[in-house]
TrEMBL record:
Keyword field: Cell membrane, Membrane, Transmembrane, Transmembrane helix, Transport
Superkingdom, taxonomy of origin: Bacteria
Keyword Membrane included in the entry's annotation: yes
Cellular location(s): Cell membrane
Stretches that traverse the bilayer: 61-82, 89-108, 114-133, 145-167, 187-206, 244-266, 302-320
Organism, scientific name: Litchfieldella rifensis
Family per similarity comment: Belongs to the binding-protein-dependent transport system permease family. FecCD subfamily.
Keyword Cell membrane: yes
InterPro entries: ABC_BtuC-like, ABC_transptr_permease_BtuC
Membrane-topology annotation of the record: Multi-pass membrane protein
Signal peptide: none
Protein name: FecCD family ABC transporter permease
Amino acid sequence: MAGRRSRWPLVILAMMAIASLLLSVAVGSVATPPAELWAVLMGEGDPLHRTLLLELRAPRALAAFGTGGLLAVAGALMQVLLRNPLADPYVLGLSGGAAVGALGAMLAGLGAVAVSGSAFIGALLSTLLVFGLAHGTGSWTPTRLLLTGVVVAAGWGAVITFLLAVGPTETLPGMLYWLMGDLAYARGPWLALGLLLATWLALLPLGRNLNVLARGPLQAAALGVSVRSLEGLVYVAASLLTAAAVTTAGSIGFVGLVVPHMLRLLLGNDQRVILPASILAGGTLLTLADTLARILIAPEQLPVGVITALLGVPTFLYLLNRSR
């Protein structure tokens, strides 16, 4: 019965995810009637609508869903690793390293592919830097890892400010849009979606161990869990997920913080439910946010990070007050 009850939230979230994707494909500066949308989905319809829906809107909607899922599940893993319900994927300076790499590539006049590659390299470099400094000559602890990440993030922030100050005027809008999070130039959803599927399959057998780890290292070790190995695996997985998300859409805030926190209040602390629920809820949230970003001031577009911040700040304050 318990397993059956835990499946119902996932079924509801899956239906919401499908509805958000269909809405994102159908809604835009050019409205698409439901009958035309159905015809395109069935392989028919007007060629212009097929190009608009299948080649422009659908890849962006899937990229938004994949990015939101990556950030949400990375946030859930970070909250388990640091045993802090307020941790998010960017707390260890990953977004700062990615931003420095991306902005440096933009200043060098490189193309979009090189910008994405530089962002991924910057995120991985920040991961290695934080872990190396936190480890030092001995063992690392969640507190030491968190403090090291905060300091490294502050350093990356100083470098970002410097790059914005010395950058030419014509490149500043693109740099600022990247920093605020933008899916307009997402290079396809398949990396994010494939990584989400691989993450779910890899973490599914570890759900029980993650539940024990969330209660503390001493209790986990007493129950036979290899704490250091599991913590290292969680750190690497969360870092790779965050790096892939930042590479796809830039720095998008609040998704990885609010979604796992909200799900934990609603569904409990079972990671076997929280992790897949985070994928579905995070993907749905960012898909809807990107849809709003496209239509609020159409034909102009807003950075999706602006929408997630406007939605995330009051939601998080409400959840914080509710859980007090």
